[in-house]
């Protein structure tokens, strides 16, 4: 669970910066869902906080949540797949 908590803290800090740089504008496209970047950031911040604060979660739940956070950050083009893998490797190296 230490890995998930460390990743959650890393992503929390990055999303917090991203949130401050986001505008509240909504992008509309007739074929797509309305996307509000601030709402996405709010949810990711909440998820990261939950991961860090939880004490009784099974590690697999925390890892599923981290996967969701990572996937969303990838879709938002905040990090590449290589960046996300580098984050995991960096923290794994620190933990061993």
SSE layout and pairings?
Elements: H1 2-21, H2 37-53, H3 59-75, H4 81-95
Structure report:
- The protein has one domain (2-95).
- The mean pLDDT is 85.
- The radius of gyration is 14 Å and the shape is globular.
- With 96 residues, it is an all-alpha fold.
- 72% of the residues lie in helices and 0% in strands.
Head-to-tail CA distance between termini: 14 Å
The parts where pLDDT drops under 50 for at least 5 residues are none
**Helix-strand string:** HHHH
Helix content: over 70%
Q: In what range is the share of β-strand residues?
A: under 5%
**Mean pLDDT metric:** 85
Whole-number count of domains = 1
What's the total number of strands?
Answer: 0
Q: How is the main sheet built?
A: none
Radius of gyration: 14 Å
Shape: globular
Q: Structural class per helix/strand content?
A: mainly alpha
Count of runs of 4 or more consecutive helical residues: 4
What does this entry show, briefly?
The protein is mainly alpha-helical. The chain is built from four helices and no strands.
Features:
mainly alpha; globular; 72% helix; 96 residues; 0% strand
């Amino acid at each position: 669970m230490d890995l998930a908590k460390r990743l959650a803290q890393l992503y929390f800090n990055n999303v917090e910066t991203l949130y401050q740089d986001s505008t509240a504008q909504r992008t509309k496209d007739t074929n797509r869902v309305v996307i509000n970047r601030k709402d996405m950031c709010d949810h990711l911040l909440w998820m990261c906080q939950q991961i860090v604060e939880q004490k009784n979660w099974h590690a697999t739940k925390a890892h599923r949540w981290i996967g969701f956070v990572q996937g969303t950050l990838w879709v938002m083009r905040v990090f590449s797949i290589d960046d996300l893998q580098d984050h995991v490797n960096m923290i794994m190296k620190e933990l061993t």
